[in-house]
Amino acid sequence: MTERLHRQDPYLLEFDAAVLARPEHEGRPALVLDRTAFYAESGGQPWDTGTLGGARVLAVLEDGPDVLHVLERPVAEDRVHGSVDAERRRDHMQQHHGQHLLSKAFVEVAQAATVAFHLGGEDTTVDLDRFVGEEQARAAERLANDVVWQARPVRVSTLTAAEARASGVEPPEGVLADIRVVEAEGFDRQPCGGTHPRTTAEVGVVVITSLERYKGGTRVHFVCGSRALAAFARRERVLADLVATLSAPLDELPAVARKVKDDLAASERRAKGLLERALEGDARRLLAEARGDGAAPSPASPAVVVAAFDGWPAEDLRVLATRVVALAPAVALLGSRSDKAHLVFAQSEGLPNDVPALLKAAVEHLGGRGGGRGNLAQGGGDRVERLDEALARARAALGLSAG
Ligand SMILES: [Zn+2]
After folding, report:
1. How far is the CA of 188 from the centre of ligand 1 (A)?
2. CA–CA separation, 69 vs 61, rounded Å?
């Protein structure tokens, strides 16, 4: 059996202990000691880290009456010195005690009970049994901070189930004795095995960062103490970056960001309109060039437009091909060279060519792939130098006069 020193004194970080057993845990060496100041993961609070006999403590787990300390390497000594990481312990005390105060504040403000608590490496949450809105959350936050700043004493007592009930604390199910009750004087009492500070003031501050609907209730994300400071610093950095990027004072950031977004959308609409007009012009010019003799194209004698461009995106080729075949009975065999070769083939409704087959043969010549259906097909390949040849072959395969 391991004596849990942290239950009497959560500020004790250095201790000496005798080794009782050396089991293995998932392939790692572990130690069971006669006493420990390391908190083992339980009740939503993660384990402490630190060293035992100079070896890093990777995990601390409850094992019935024992506490299992999982180490990064074996320790041979029968007596070891333990050292608990102070910063992590203090962080856990701030978050966990802050949780007690915030949970009680939600009961007071919104009759919302806490059904789960999670203390993670970055994120800390409580799950409430009902939905609470922004206003109630801010009221609970205010109340919790009032209690923090009143620096109320925090006391720990060990009670029987009957004593706990008499003092208004519902004992954990099936537990009759040795119920550890943590009290923030005059505000909150609850059964808990965690490490808590001497006074509520050590929590520093409680800040709710977000609310989400969760399992018919609310998940409340919050930070306390040093995590609140770190979260503030992170937001400050992001905001300073935005202030510099948008050349706007802090208070005007939302309005300026909205304007930038609106301006961008308007620019995109305008660019799209200009591109469509440009492609319409290109389509008419290409059709005119394809019919050099001036004769109007017809289904029996369609225009054949063959053109290669430098650096056009495949999407623009597709729009251009679609315009060409919409304006007159025509076949469009279009290509573009960039780091790859792109091809888009199209023909007007009612013309007899197998466009997907033409495209397939052409992209194979380019060492690539592509496909399509009916009168439109597209694809590409890496052999950019073969683009003109691929277009010429497709044209020859049409079996149509050049018009
Ligand atoms: Zn607790």
Report:
1. 11
2. 7
Q: In the structure, what pLDDT confidence band is assigned to residue 371 with cuts at 50, 70 and 90?
A: confident
For residue 127, the CA-to-ligand 1 centroid distance in Å is 14
Residue 94 is predicted with a pLDDT of: 97
DSSP character at residue 75: -
For residue 193, the CA-to-ligand 1 centroid distance in Å is 6
Instruction: Please report the DSSP string for 213-234 in residue order.
Output: EETTEEEEEEEEHHHHHHHHHH
Q: Do residues 196 and 125 lie in contact, with contact meaning Cβ atoms separated by under 8 Å?
A: no
Ligand 1: centre distance to CA 63 (Å): 20
26 and 58 Cβ atoms separated by less than 8 Å = no
Report strand pairing: 35-36 vs 154-159. Answer: unpaired
| Ligand 1 geometric centre to CA of 117 (Å) | 9
Distance between Cα 24 and ligand 1 center (Å): 30
Assessment of whether the complete model's pTM goes beyond 0.85: no
Q: Where does residue 334 fall: left (phi above 0), alpha (psi -120 to 50 degrees), or beta otherwise?
A: beta
How far is ligand 1, taken at its centre, from the CA of residue 164, in Å? Answer: 15
Enter the tokens of residue 333: 């065999």
Rounded distance between C-alpha atoms, residue 318 and residue 376, angstroms: 9
- CA 43 to ligand 1 center in whole angstroms: 7
Alpha-carbon distances of 379 from 55, 163, 375, rounded to whole Å? 60, 79, 14
| Segment 118-168, tens digit of pLDDT | 999 888 999 999 999 999 999 999 999 999 999 999 999 999 988 988 888
User: What's the 6 CA to ligand 1 centre distance in angstroms?
Assistant: 14
Q: Are 101 and 152 in contact (CB under 8 A)?
A: no
* pLDDT confidence band for 399 (50 / 70 / 90): low
Over range 313-319, report the average pLDDT: 93
Q: Is the distance from CB of 38 to CB of 61 less than 8 angstroms?
A: no
- Cα 53 to middle of ligand 1, angstroms: 30
Q: Is 62 exposed, middle or buried (0-12, 13-18, 19+ CB in 10 A)?
A: middle
- pLDDT, tens digit, 9 for 90 and up, residues 244-275: 999 999 999 999 999 999 999 999 999 999 99
pLDDT value for 400: 47
